Amino acid sequence: MPSLTQQRCLNHSFREAVARCPGCKQYFCRECVTEHEDRVLCAACLKKLTRSGSTRRFRVVQLAVSVQCLFGVLTAGLFFYCIGRVLLAIPDSFHEGTVWKSSLRDEE
Questions:
Q1: Angle 98-102-106 from CA coordinates, rounded to 5°
Q2: Top-confidence residue, 66 or 98
Q3: pTM value?
Q4: Backbone angles phi, psi at 32, to 5 degrees
Q5: Pairing of β 27-28 and β 19-20
Q6: Residue 46's closest CA among 58, 59, 32?
Q7: Cα–Cα dist 102/4, whole Å
Q8: 51-55, 77-81, 100-104 — which is least confidently predicted?
């Protein structure tokens, strides 16, 4: 196996390789590698690594938003149910306005 100094970059054949990506085992120049979490990775391997993490994160966020929406709908339903029960408990005479009319007549 040739040493690193004899290798050329996979993307730029005229440049000398400075690192080997541990993911794909290819040689790359300084321009083609990136340090990520104390590892030197090529752009393709870095993209794979970040995509898998963001997909999981997206699913967790999507689940959290769904749970929040469900909680909000249930809370609103419970609120309106309670308001309806309170309104049903009020006597009919209050709704018809006879309570107010009778109290005004008594004063006259």
A1: 175
A2: 66
A3: 0.44
A4: -95, -10
A5: antiparallel
A6: 32
A7: 102
A8: 100-104
Q: Does the residue 108 lie in any domain?
A: no
Expressed as residue numbers, the domain containing 60 is 4-89
Give CA separation, 24 vs 11, 40, 41, 42, in Å. 13, 11, 9, 8
81's tokens: 């149910």
Asked whether the beta carbons of 12 and 30 are under 8 A apart, the reply is no
pLDDT of 9-62, one tens digit each?
Answer: 888 888 888 888 888 888 888 888 888 888 888 888 888 877 766 677 788 899
CATH number for the domain harbouring residue 56:
2.10.110
8 A C-beta contact, residue 29 and residue 17 = yes
Could you count the other beta carbons within 10 Å of the beta carbon of residue 86?
9
Structurally, how many domains does the chain consist of? 1
